Amino acid sequence: MTWLRRQPVSVTVSLSFLLLLLLWQGVVVLGGYDQFILPSPLDVARQFGVVMVDGRLLRHSLITLSEVIPGLLIGAGISLPLGYLLAKSPLAERLISPYLIASQAIPVIAIAPLLTIWIHSTFWARVLVAVLVVFFPVLINIIAGLRSVPRELYELMHAMQATRWQIFRKLEWPAALPIVLAGLKLGATLSVIGALVGEFVQPKTEGLGYLLITARYQFKTDLVFVVLFTLAAIALSLYGLVTLAERRLLRWQRHQ
Q1: Domain that includes residue 84, residue range
Q2: What's the average model confidence in pLDDT over 135-152?
Q3: Which pLDDT belongs to residue 20?
Q4: Is residue 145 one of the residues assigned to a domain?
């Protein structure tokens, strides 16, 4: 265990993934499951090679990614100014917060069919579903981050006669940034779920959601696993990009 703790994260993750594959293969062999019930890792790898060679996986992945990224950016872009307004204005919080909280009691899967009626563009209907999924978690983190700034620091900035913009740029934004970035990490993973829900509700012959539905109806469980792993890889990649941005933007914390 001591040796394992000294290894880089990439090594420990690779070892844990290898262990997972071995356990998975053991369950398939000992359980005697048919391929359409539980395919082995080798079956999934074989199917992965097939859809990579014929280009289906790349084509559908790019379609889903083209919905995920705008959904994440638009959702975060709306959350930032609204979160600042709610954090700084008690009146705005009293007027708007009840509706925001109530909206979270309604599953997105129930709202998504309405979006397909209201929005004629299949692409933007899917993107809007991703926006709705990303919006609230990022908003809550922005509000929490801004409200975490100590009152003493505000008093110091006012004593130095700082303007509202200077207070935001020099105090509020740096202080809230760690919590905001944590919200963006969560939003990065949820945006994939949002785009997939949009593809389920707004069916079209493109996207990983379409490929997943097709594989399910054809009882191609190995292809279902390929799509699930691809979705996980997209979510992990976006999470990693936000983590890299976090390390770059919060370098000042490591020097304290």
Answers
A1: 43-254
A2: 86
A3: 84
A4: yes
